[in-house]
Design goal:
With 352 residues, the chain is of the alpha/beta class. It has 2 domains: 1-36; 43-350, TIM Barrel (Alpha-Beta Barrel), CATH 3.20.20. Helix content is 38%, strand content 15%. The protein is built from 9 helices and 10 strands. InterPro entries: GH (IPR017853), Glyco_hydro_53 (IPR011683).
Amino acid sequence: MLTKIELKSMKWLSLILLLILTGSGCKKSVKGETQIYPLPDPVGTYALGADVSWLTEMEANGKKFYNAAGEQQDLLKILKDKGINTIRLRVWVNPASGYCNTADVLAKAKRAKAMNMRLLIDFHYSDSWADPGQQNKPAAWVNHDFATLKTAVYNHTVEVLNVLKTNKIIPEWVQVGNETNNGMLWNEGKASVNMKNFADLVLSGYNGVKAVNPATKVVVHISNGYDNSLFRWIFDGLKNNGAKWDVVGMSMYPSATDWSAKNTQCLANMTDMVTRYGSEVMICELGMPVSEAVACKAFIKDLIAKNKSLPNNKGLGVFYWEPQSYNSWSGYKLGAFDDSGKPTVAMDGFLP
């Protein structure tokens, strides 16, 4: 029979072993083998995010970034000091420039991991921009029949996520499509033409994500987060045609004069997405003209509060889209850095 001293020693050994396993971020892969990699901290808390997909291209073109004191720093360090804990990265299939292809996404994801930041991956399923006005198939997929198109979505999703996984990077969220207001991979996947096809493509992406890491949450992303009729049309159509998702993603790009009204409408829409589908909700993109930084700060703080107010912690987070774009990089004027490469007061919207 064990003595009290021996029993206490065993308890302490068990506790130490538990702490070691917990702290190492021990995970089970799909195949069942144990993989150990550091997990971002804090996982599961509210996501304050930024899409910085332009980062490597901007750096290659000589752009530098500075904190409020004018000290040159890595962009991710500047953002983290502004409260950002999560990075969003878009993926293109075979972009002409190479930026946002798998290798470029991996390079940026490694930097985010090194900063202990979390990750949202955004599949466009295109060689370039996919948004409400264009959902062009990748050149390599143009002649695919629909069955092959579904397979291509699945394979591309798995391949990119496996590259990340091999580097011990596991996104917490993955978008299956970008601003798919009228479906994706037109014309076969155009929702207004064939909602069933769109639902099948979403399901292919969903299954690809879950095949690599079942715990990763799948996002379906629609713009105009204040437009409830649009969201009901899309998500009713997806649900009725067998698609699956975990998170409803939204974009919000109001002006300094209408942001308050738009946020109120967005809250009503977010609440409806929770009650109607049981979904979690994330603002995957937001922005406002850089010249309206003071209003933008108020807009961000209010939208965060509204997203956080959803029942049962269904509000997951908000993301600024390319805040670091300055001097109208690529003609974009909705960033949150001034012409000297420093964050504007808008980024203070993410601070407590």
